[in-house]
Amino acid sequence: MFFLGLFAALLISWVAIVLGSNAQLGSQAPYYDDNQGTAFPQWMPGAAARGQLVYRDLGCAACHTQRVRRPDFGYDRARGWGERQSVARDYLYQPWPQLGLARVGPDLANLADRKPTAPDGDDLLHMLYAGSEDMPAYRFLFEERRLGSSAQRSDDALKLTGALEPGRGREVVPTARARDLVAYLLSLKAQYDYPEAVPYVAPRAEGAAPAKTPAAPAAGAAAPAKPAAPPTAGGAAPSPAPAGAAAPTPSAAPAQAAAPAGSAAPPVAAPSPTPAGTAAPTPSAAPAQTAAPAGSAAPPVAAPSPTPAGAAAPISGSAPAQAAAPAPAHTGGSQ
Hints:
The chain is mainly α. It contains four helices and four strands. 17% of the residues lie in helices and 5% in strands. The strands form two sheets. The chain has a two-stranded antiparallel sheet. The protein has a two-stranded antiparallel ribbon with strand order 3-4. The longest helix is centred in the N-terminal third of the chain and has 24 residues, at 2-25. It is globular.
């Protein structure tokens, strides 16, 4: 059962990848342009088709890719590797699309139309023979041969200088495989801007207005009202004064008169007990002020009656004071 399940998993994966992709892209047709009167993409010439076999045989796809990524997936366009992204229709007439495995070297999907300047055939042949820092030399694709005493140099001979220059009476010419490979590289360019190559932009919903930025407050507008201060502990919250009314002036607490020496403080009446369920009165709480009508001045606050002379200030919540015994009167002289 284990091997049967493993075989079923591999079969389902193969069907989904191979047959599914073929069903999705196998029936794709070239795009016909009415203005130009031709279809795109076009077939590769014979030399370019043979050069693709050389490209495949040398394993160039191990270091070079042939796909330009979308603008939001990389910087291929900024590097000059292509003006648009690659799509499946670009590889319609390629028997073996060389998408590539890694980018050790630059992307070659649009090599013949590289910006700012594209290489020509001589540049590519020189690069294949000399190599570079990141690419080996493929000198087996060239032939070095001797010239006769009166022979003329070949038109295909490489113009080499320095250490690469062959000896006197000798020249280096490309083989047929090198010329086919160069023909294939020069055929790599985006031939047409297909509709599916344009980056997708989500359309705006019909009637949807753009988001508005909240407007700044007008100059001279009144500032928002601040929240009222919480009531003080043990006291009633002051009522807000109406608009236009003058704020009441807080009255100063009356000064306590000092009792004369030798006099006793009068008895203080004990406070009446608070009935059950009733909030206890707050000591020394000021009576609530009645709001004055708009446009009128606040009424004067009545000052509390002064304590009689010779009497001590009453103590809130204290027990009644005991009356002091009268001092004995001296009727006679000193004893």
